[in-house]
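does this look right to u?? zinc ion version
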Amino acid sequence: MKLIFLGPPGAGKGTIADLAMQELGIPHISTGDLFRAAVKNGTALGLKVKDIMASGGLVPDDLTIALVAERLAEGDAKKGWILDGFPRTIPQAEALEKMTAADKVVNFEVADDIVVGRLSGRRMCKTCGKIYHEKNMPPKVAGICDVDGSPLYTRDDDKEGAIKVRLDTYRKQTAPLIDWYGKKGKLLTIDGVGAPAAVLQRFQAALKK
Ligand SMILES: [Zn+2]
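got this back:
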């Protein structure tokens, strides 16, 4: 099963992808994670994307496509995958279609005000990358990771100014993909509001149809 998850930043795609990954036995491939790993490892690509990500902008198509192609060539991606954060533009979708076409494209719908609340409360561990939320998923001790005791921080792209830029960018560049995949008959639209377990159930029901 080859799936693409679409939806605004903060729609919970990553959380649902992690749950679905265990169930379907296919890897969850997040371009955000691939980029952050490249930045952390200081690769040539990482240095290029660092500034772009901090300002909330999109990494250019050619860099993104190269990174994803490399990841899809790995052994665990042979039986399928969930792509989260890719494609984000029509050229990226066309490039993917040439490499390997997705079976279904799942669009998680969440209103902007809910997205802002979710993202601005998000805190990430500097060491292990675990994600918390001030209100919805707080750590046991405020500001400290439950797993390894490291300090939590707000990612630059989760700060309010960057969130607005990310939402605008999403609406302008990624929303046309919804039409594009709709015309191919691959689109499943899901209400992304609510607890992860409820959204997962809607996703499973939509896949079965
Ligand atoms: Zn941690």
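The domain at 2-201 is CATH 3.40.50.300 (Rossmann fold). idk if thats expected tbh
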